[in-house]
Amino acid sequence: MAKKSLSDLIGIELNPSSHAEKLISGLGGFIAIFMIIVISYSVLGADAYLIVASMGAATVLLFAIPHGPLSQPWPLFGGNLISALIGVTCAQLVPDTYIAAALAVGISVTAMHYLRCIHPPGGATALSAVIGGAAVEELGYMYVITPVLLNIALIFAVAVSFNFLFKWRRYPAQLAADKVTLSPKLTHESIKHALKQIDSFVDASEDDLNRIYELALEFDKNHEKQFSK
Q1: Residue numbers of the domain that contains 137
Q2: Is 56 part of any domain?
Q3: What is the percent of the chain with per-residue pLDDT over 90, rounded to a whole number?
Q4: Co-location of 148 and 218 in the same domain
Q5: Exposed, middle or buried, 31 (CB in 10 Å: 0-12/13-18/19+)?
Q6: What is the pTM of this model?
Q7: Residue 75, preceding bond cis, omega within 30 degrees?
Q8: Taking the C-alpha atoms of 121, 122, 126 and 131 in order, what is their torsion angle to the nearest 10 degrees?
Protein backbone atom coordinates (compact mmCIF):
# COMPACT_ATOMS: atom_id res chain seq x y z
CA MET A 1 0.00 0.00 0.00
CA ALA A 2 1.40 3.40 -1.00
CA LYS A 3 2.45 5.66 1.84
CA LYS A 4 0.05 8.56 2.29
CA SER A 5 1.39 12.07 2.77
CA LEU A 6 -0.13 14.52 5.24
CA SER A 7 -1.64 16.53 2.37
CA ASP A 8 -3.34 13.36 1.08
CA LEU A 9 -4.74 12.52 4.50
CA ILE A 10 -6.25 15.95 5.14
CA GLY A 11 -7.57 16.28 1.59
CA ILE A 12 -5.41 18.96 -0.02
CA GLU A 13 -6.02 18.42 -3.73
CA LEU A 14 -3.70 19.36 -6.56
CA ASN A 15 -5.18 22.49 -8.14
CA PRO A 16 -3.30 23.38 -11.33
CA SER A 17 -5.75 26.07 -12.49
CA SER A 18 -4.27 29.44 -13.45
CA HIS A 19 -4.41 32.65 -11.43
CA ALA A 20 -6.76 34.06 -14.08
CA GLU A 21 -9.18 31.15 -13.61
CA LYS A 22 -9.21 31.65 -9.84
CA LEU A 23 -9.83 35.40 -10.18
CA ILE A 24 -12.59 34.86 -12.78
CA SER A 25 -14.31 32.47 -10.36
CA GLY A 26 -14.20 35.07 -7.59
CA LEU A 27 -15.48 37.84 -9.86
CA GLY A 28 -18.37 35.65 -10.99
CA GLY A 29 -19.27 34.90 -7.39
CA PHE A 30 -19.28 38.60 -6.50
CA ILE A 31 -21.51 39.50 -9.45
CA ALA A 32 -23.94 36.65 -8.71
CA ILE A 33 -24.54 37.53 -5.05
CA PHE A 34 -24.66 41.26 -5.80
CA MET A 35 -27.29 40.73 -8.51
CA ILE A 36 -29.39 38.46 -6.28
CA ILE A 37 -29.49 41.10 -3.55
CA VAL A 38 -30.16 44.05 -5.88
CA ILE A 39 -32.89 42.37 -7.94
CA SER A 40 -34.54 40.69 -4.93
CA TYR A 41 -34.58 44.06 -3.16
CA SER A 42 -36.21 45.77 -6.13
CA VAL A 43 -38.81 42.99 -6.53
CA LEU A 44 -39.61 42.14 -2.92
CA GLY A 45 -38.74 45.32 -1.01
CA ALA A 46 -36.39 46.13 1.85
CA ASP A 47 -38.34 44.23 4.51
CA ALA A 48 -38.39 40.93 2.64
CA TYR A 49 -36.19 37.89 3.24
CA LEU A 50 -33.92 38.59 0.27
CA ILE A 51 -31.34 35.81 0.06
CA VAL A 52 -30.85 32.32 1.46
CA ALA A 53 -27.40 31.68 2.97
CA SER A 54 -27.05 28.53 0.87
CA MET A 55 -26.68 30.71 -2.23
CA GLY A 56 -23.13 31.43 -1.07
CA ALA A 57 -22.31 27.73 -1.38
CA ALA A 58 -24.16 27.45 -4.70
CA THR A 59 -22.07 30.34 -6.00
CA VAL A 60 -18.86 28.44 -5.23
CA LEU A 61 -20.11 25.49 -7.28
CA LEU A 62 -21.40 27.46 -10.29
CA PHE A 63 -18.38 29.74 -10.61
CA ALA A 64 -15.46 27.73 -9.24
CA ILE A 65 -16.60 24.31 -10.55
CA PRO A 66 -19.02 25.17 -13.40
CA HIS A 67 -18.63 21.77 -15.09
CA GLY A 68 -19.01 19.62 -11.97
CA PRO A 69 -22.07 17.33 -11.84
CA LEU A 70 -23.17 18.97 -8.58
CA SER A 71 -23.23 22.37 -10.31
CA GLN A 72 -25.53 21.55 -13.23
CA PRO A 73 -29.06 22.99 -13.65
CA TRP A 74 -31.05 19.99 -12.40
CA PRO A 75 -29.04 19.69 -9.15
CA LEU A 76 -29.22 23.48 -8.70
CA PHE A 77 -32.99 23.76 -9.16
CA GLY A 78 -34.07 20.30 -8.04
CA GLY A 79 -31.75 20.09 -5.04
CA ASN A 80 -32.70 23.49 -3.65
CA LEU A 81 -36.44 23.39 -4.33
CA ILE A 82 -36.95 19.86 -3.03
CA SER A 83 -34.88 20.62 0.06
CA ALA A 84 -36.80 23.86 0.67
CA LEU A 85 -40.10 21.99 0.45
CA ILE A 86 -38.88 19.29 2.84
CA GLY A 87 -37.47 21.90 5.23
CA VAL A 88 -40.73 23.85 5.45
CA THR A 89 -42.73 20.64 5.93
CA CYS A 90 -40.46 19.50 8.78
CA ALA A 91 -40.64 22.94 10.39
CA GLN A 92 -44.43 22.86 10.35
CA LEU A 93 -44.99 19.25 11.38
CA VAL A 94 -42.23 18.62 13.94
CA PRO A 95 -42.53 20.68 17.15
CA ASP A 96 -38.95 20.17 18.34
CA THR A 97 -36.68 22.52 16.34
CA TYR A 98 -33.55 20.39 16.71
CA ILE A 99 -35.26 17.21 15.56
CA ALA A 100 -36.98 19.11 12.73
CA ALA A 101 -33.61 20.50 11.60
CA ALA A 102 -31.97 17.07 11.61
CA LEU A 103 -34.90 15.48 9.78
CA ALA A 104 -34.98 18.25 7.17
CA VAL A 105 -31.33 17.76 6.24
CA GLY A 106 -31.38 13.96 6.43
CA ILE A 107 -34.52 13.58 4.32
CA SER A 108 -33.24 16.16 1.83
CA VAL A 109 -29.96 14.29 1.33
CA THR A 110 -31.86 11.05 0.73
CA ALA A 111 -34.34 12.69 -1.64
CA MET A 112 -31.57 14.36 -3.65
CA HIS A 113 -29.80 11.01 -3.97
CA TYR A 114 -32.89 9.24 -5.30
CA LEU A 115 -33.88 12.10 -7.59
CA ARG A 116 -30.32 12.40 -8.93
CA CYS A 117 -29.99 16.06 -8.01
CA ILE A 118 -27.35 16.07 -5.26
CA HIS A 119 -26.47 19.69 -4.54
CA PRO A 120 -24.68 20.37 -1.21
CA PRO A 121 -26.24 23.83 -0.73
CA GLY A 122 -29.62 22.05 -0.70
CA GLY A 123 -28.84 20.83 2.82
CA ALA A 124 -28.39 24.43 3.96
CA THR A 125 -31.58 25.45 2.15
CA ALA A 126 -33.50 22.80 4.11
CA LEU A 127 -31.84 23.78 7.38
CA SER A 128 -32.59 27.48 6.86
CA ALA A 129 -36.29 26.65 6.49
CA VAL A 130 -36.23 25.30 10.05
CA ILE A 131 -33.83 27.61 11.90
CA GLY A 132 -34.20 30.77 9.80
CA GLY A 133 -36.19 32.54 12.48
CA ALA A 134 -39.51 34.35 12.50
CA ALA A 135 -39.05 35.86 9.03
CA VAL A 136 -38.79 32.42 7.42
CA GLU A 137 -41.48 30.90 9.62
CA GLU A 138 -43.96 33.57 8.52
CA LEU A 139 -43.32 32.75 4.87
CA GLY A 140 -44.44 29.13 5.20
CA TYR A 141 -44.38 27.39 1.83
CA MET A 142 -43.84 30.74 0.09
CA TYR A 143 -40.23 30.27 1.22
CA VAL A 144 -39.90 27.81 -1.68
CA ILE A 145 -40.84 30.54 -4.18
CA THR A 146 -39.36 33.65 -2.59
CA PRO A 147 -36.57 33.69 -1.78
CA VAL A 148 -35.44 30.20 -2.89
CA LEU A 149 -36.75 29.93 -6.47
CA LEU A 150 -36.06 33.61 -7.16
CA ASN A 151 -32.51 33.25 -5.82
CA ILE A 152 -31.63 30.18 -7.87
CA ALA A 153 -33.22 31.58 -11.04
CA LEU A 154 -31.04 34.69 -10.70
CA ILE A 155 -27.85 32.80 -9.90
CA PHE A 156 -28.52 30.48 -12.84
CA ALA A 157 -28.99 33.42 -15.21
CA VAL A 158 -25.75 35.04 -14.04
CA ALA A 159 -23.86 31.73 -14.30
CA VAL A 160 -25.01 31.16 -17.89
CA SER A 161 -24.28 34.72 -19.06
CA PHE A 162 -21.02 35.29 -17.16
CA ASN A 163 -19.43 31.91 -17.92
CA PHE A 164 -20.43 32.24 -21.58
CA LEU A 165 -17.78 34.94 -21.92
CA PHE A 166 -15.09 32.29 -21.41
CA LYS A 167 -15.48 29.41 -23.86
CA TRP A 168 -13.60 26.89 -21.71
CA ARG A 169 -15.99 27.36 -18.77
CA ARG A 170 -19.37 27.85 -20.44
CA TYR A 171 -22.33 26.73 -18.34
CA PRO A 172 -24.14 24.32 -18.36
CA ALA A 173 -21.27 21.92 -18.99
CA GLN A 174 -22.65 20.73 -22.34
CA LEU A 175 -22.05 24.22 -23.78
CA ALA A 176 -18.32 24.06 -23.08
CA ALA A 177 -16.10 24.07 -26.16
CA ASP A 178 -13.02 22.13 -27.20
CA LYS A 179 -13.94 18.56 -26.38
CA VAL A 180 -10.84 16.42 -26.76
CA THR A 181 -10.85 13.32 -28.96
CA LEU A 182 -7.27 12.12 -28.87
CA SER A 183 -8.00 8.42 -28.50
CA PRO A 184 -10.94 6.00 -28.33
CA LYS A 185 -13.17 7.08 -25.48
CA LEU A 186 -14.03 4.99 -22.51
CA THR A 187 -17.53 3.65 -23.05
CA HIS A 188 -20.50 4.73 -20.98
CA GLU A 189 -20.83 1.17 -19.69
CA SER A 190 -17.18 0.98 -18.62
CA ILE A 191 -17.40 4.26 -16.71
CA LYS A 192 -20.70 3.20 -15.14
CA HIS A 193 -19.14 -0.11 -14.05
CA ALA A 194 -16.09 1.63 -12.55
CA LEU A 195 -18.24 4.11 -10.62
CA LYS A 196 -20.41 1.27 -9.33
CA GLN A 197 -17.31 -0.45 -7.97
CA ILE A 198 -16.31 2.74 -6.13
CA ASP A 199 -19.88 2.92 -4.72
CA SER A 200 -19.62 6.59 -3.79
CA PHE A 201 -20.65 9.79 -5.54
CA VAL A 202 -17.84 11.13 -7.76
CA ASP A 203 -18.02 14.83 -8.58
CA ALA A 204 -16.84 14.52 -12.18
CA SER A 205 -18.91 14.17 -15.34
CA GLU A 206 -18.47 11.38 -17.87
CA ASP A 207 -17.07 13.90 -20.38
CA ASP A 208 -14.57 15.18 -17.82
CA LEU A 209 -13.41 11.65 -16.97
CA ASN A 210 -12.89 10.92 -20.67
CA ARG A 211 -11.05 14.19 -21.18
CA ILE A 212 -8.72 13.54 -18.24
CA TYR A 213 -8.06 10.03 -19.53
CA GLU A 214 -7.32 11.22 -23.07
CA LEU A 215 -5.07 14.09 -22.01
CA ALA A 216 -3.15 11.80 -19.65
CA LEU A 217 -2.62 9.27 -22.46
CA GLU A 218 -1.43 12.02 -24.80
CA PHE A 219 1.01 13.29 -22.17
CA ASP A 220 2.40 9.77 -21.64
CA LYS A 221 2.84 9.27 -25.39
CA ASN A 222 4.72 12.56 -25.78
CA HIS A 223 6.79 11.80 -22.69
CA GLU A 224 7.79 8.40 -24.07
CA LYS A 225 8.75 9.94 -27.43
CA GLN A 226 11.06 12.42 -25.73
CA PHE A 227 12.88 9.68 -23.84
CA SER A 228 13.12 7.41 -26.89
CA LYS A 229 14.98 10.03 -28.94
Answers
A1: 20-175
A2: yes
A3: 62
A4: no
A5: middle
A6: 0.81
A7: no
A8: 0
